[in-house]
Amino acid sequence: MAVGFAVATLLFLTNAFQTGAGKTAFLLIGPLLGACVVAAILISELLIATPTGSLRSARLKQRRIRDYVSRTQTLLLTALTIGFLLLMVGTTAAFLNIAPRIPSDEVRGDWGPTPPEFVFLCPSGLPEDADFWGITNIPWILSVAAVGLGLSLFALRRIATRPPYDSDPTLQDADERQRESSAGAVVQACGVLLTSSSAACAYFMSNAFSFTCQSSHTLILGNVMQVFSYMSTAALIYFLITLARACSPRVVAQ
Hints:
By secondary structure, the protein is mainly alpha-helical. It has seven helices and two strands, in the order H-H-H-H-E-E-H-H-H. Strands 1-2 form a two-stranded antiparallel ribbon.
């Protein structure tokens, strides 16, 4: 978790004060935090030494991912993933259809040599530039989210299938607790990844709808996105707290 925070902070400090890069850095902080936490858990699982002694078949059992991730957690993460994708696609499509878009070449003289990325012809008849966080950021956000979710699945599979300790019942119990703890941390990191992405996107889309070709329609969309950003932020805080608890060292009673 500390590595994830370090990478996220470095990204923000490196890009936040560059022109046009601050929003991109803000959008990627949460997904990178979640992905880095998952990567750290995966590396720790891969570094666990394989037991050298023979395994007694009577002690073996087939472990599956669902043994460590409950059905409720699976449904929750699935719903968050679908909701995040719908948010990205739906709000972008709605924004691009606010009003007819004016090609950049037609407004180059009025807006200088580098006109805004989005200029709309509002119902008032006046052109208006849009405060939009940029379609060019979508591939980056989706890529980081896809990598993080892919690492999560791989980490959960590693947690469930790595060879168990068979020589000592005490080691077996500690091994099982470690699997449960690691799987819980991966699930919470996925929650951080998805809720932080949704909160940031909803926040910027709220500004985009509220200050572009203002009408009752855009104001409603802006208010809805603002409420959604608050809800996503509350969910993000919950996942961060539970992630911190899952990653905290635990003392095993002797």
